[in-house]
């Protein structure tokens, strides 16, 4: 299924715009685009919500016919337990996380111990935990970690844009993770020369105009055949003014959805 995530509304949620979009507003905007899936990913206000507010948000999503997924950072036992409880409120069947969190950088051995201790509860609840590819952990190490834990409810959230920062090739990342991919983050990316030709800026690009070979990802991972969801997000730089930035963010979302629907 094609979905939108909070990173597709990054600037619309931001306090840099005059009227930041609420979570329910993002739900409504998602539904208006004829999308049925929303991933609440790294959305700081979520963790500050009490259960009553969480239930209200979950009710709003259900009323709109949206399926919800969750996303956080870190795999400390208390964090995974808390997000499993939030997943129950939203009827979410996937939680995306990262091995390193805001306050923890476990060794791979420690990460394995934490995951083995937590994954049984996820299995019992029918919730998948998907660990994202990113630069702090080599893709090969992430795959080894998932294989060592060996749970059908532990997989990988594939975002090949992230691993470029550790000089990994996106295509290599896709091929290594393909058997374990449980979720895909969809965005294009590109390099541009900085002024004065003194280095590069690595940033987002409109879908289909950057370096991401998404056809290769579709062939290697086969997300539509395997029921792996594709979540749209962006790395959109600030465009100089709130109105221009929000308009561009919405346009990138529209273009990405068109691209995904055209290739389905």
Description:
This protein has a single domain (2-262), classed as Divalent-metal-dependent TIM barrel enzymes (TIM Barrel, Alpha-Beta Barrel), CATH 3.20.20. Helices cover 44% and strands 19% of the residues. The chain contains eleven helices and ten strands. The chain has helices at residues 10-13, 23-32, 44-48, 51-63, 77-90, 108-125, 139-149, 170-177, 214-221, 223-226, 242-262; strands at 2-5, 37-41, 67-71, 94-97, 128-132, 154-158, 181-186, 188-193, 200-205, 229-232. Strand 8 (188-193) and strand 9 (200-205) form a beta hairpin. Helix 5 packs parallel to helix 6 and helix 6 (108-125) packs across helix 7 (139-149). Keywords: Carbohydrate metabolism.
Whole-number count of domains: 1
Mean pLDDT: 97
Q: What is the CATH architecture term? A: Alpha-Beta Barrel
Strand order of the largest sheet: 1-2-3-4-5-6-7-10
* H/E topology pattern: EHHEHHEHEHEHEHEEEHHEH
What's the CATH topology name?
A: TIM Barrel
Distance between the termini: 10 Å
Q: Percent of residues in beta strands?
A: 15-25%
Instruction: Tell me the CATH superfamily.
Output: Divalent-metal-dependent TIM barrel enzymes
Number of helices: 11
- Rounded to an integer in angstroms, the radius of gyration calculated over CA atoms is 18 Å
Overall morphology: globular
Question: Runs with pLDDT <50, length 5+?
Answer: none
């Amino acid at each position: 299924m094609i979905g939108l995530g909070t990173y597709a509304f990054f600037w619309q949620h931001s306090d840099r715009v005059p009227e930041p979009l609420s979570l329910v507003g993002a739900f409504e905007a998602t539904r208006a685009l004829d999308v049925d899936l929303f991933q609440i990913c790294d959305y700081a206000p979520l963790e500050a919500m009490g259960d009553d507010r969480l239930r209200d948000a979950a009710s709003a999503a259900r009323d709109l016919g949206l399926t919800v997924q969750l996303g956080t950072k870190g795999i400390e036992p208390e964090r995974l337990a808390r997000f499993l409880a939030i997943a129950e409120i939203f009827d979410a069947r996937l939680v995306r996380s990262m091995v390193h969190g805001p306050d923890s950088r476990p060794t791979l051995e420690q990460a394995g111990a934490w995951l083995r201790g937590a994954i049984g509860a996820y299995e019992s609840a029918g919730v998948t935990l998907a660990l994202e590819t990113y630069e702090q952990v080599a893709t090969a190490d992430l795959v080894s970690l998932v294989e060592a834990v060996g749970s059908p409810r532990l997989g990988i959230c594939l975002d090949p844009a992230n691993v470029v920062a550790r000089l990994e090739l996106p295509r290599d990342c896709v091929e290594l993770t393909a058997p374990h991919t449980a979720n895909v983050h969809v965005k294009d990316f590109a390099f541009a020369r900085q002024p004065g030709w003194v280095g590069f800026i690595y940033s987002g690009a409109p879908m289909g105009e950057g370096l991401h070979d998404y056809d290769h990802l579709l062939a290697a991972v086969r997300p539509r055949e395997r029921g792996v969801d594709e979540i749209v997000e962006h790395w959109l730089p600030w465009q100089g003014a709130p109105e221009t930035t929000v308009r561009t963010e919405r346009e990138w979302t529209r273009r990405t959805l068109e691209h995904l629907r055209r290739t389905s």
